[in-house]
Prior knowledge:
Blueprint (H helix, E strand, L loop, with lengths): L1 H19 L3 E3 L3 E4 L3 E4 L4 E4 L3 E4 L14 E4 L5 E4 L4 E3 L2 E4 L2 E4 L4 E2 L4 E3 L21 E3 L4 E2 L4 E2 L4 E2 L4 E2 L4 E2 L2 E2 L3 E5 L2 E6 L3
Parallel strand pairs: 1-4, 2-5, 3-6, 4-7, 5-8, 6-9, 7-10, 8-11, 9-12, 10-13, 11-14, 12-15, 13-16, 14-17, 15-18, 16-19, 17-20
Antiparallel strand pairs: 20-21
Amino acid sequence: MLVKVYLLLIHFYSNLRFLLNPNISIDGRVQIKKTPIVDIRAGARLNIGSNVTLNSNNQSYHVNLFAPVKLFARIPGALIEIGDNTRIHGSCIHSQSSISIGRNCLIAGNCQIIDGSGHELAPGTRLDVSFRAQPIVIEDNVWLGTGVIILPGTTIGSGSVISAGSVVKGTVEKDCLMMGNPAKAVKRLDK
């Protein structure tokens, strides 16, 4: 009984943090399993659709989650959008520009979705923060397998599946199975 009360309090606290942050908008119910890391700074935005799941609960997930869900928009103008019925499990979404995730998407555990490097490449300038980011668009009904990395400037077409451990950069056509590092199209997915 005491455990159930404790879990309800954690759920209430997590939802309250979302509701009190003026940079976050929620269009409906959000299911939060354990506490995510949510850092949406001044001038940045997080828009969450209805019936979204943010799962940081390692016990109830079929693979080991290395960390809780992390939603991080750190500079003014940065945007994270998550569409209705999307489920995110123990993954990091870090926006310096914009990351748009469509409806009915499944983001499996330990994925990294990052739209910018966060610093310069050249030696001597790596401590200088660079905000040259490129938007990421993940369209509706996309499935990202465990440990997928989505790099800046990527668009993933609706209905596509990205195999576990793949690294994706560029444009993925709709209804496509991608795998590898770098990810390559393996086949078209029939409806």
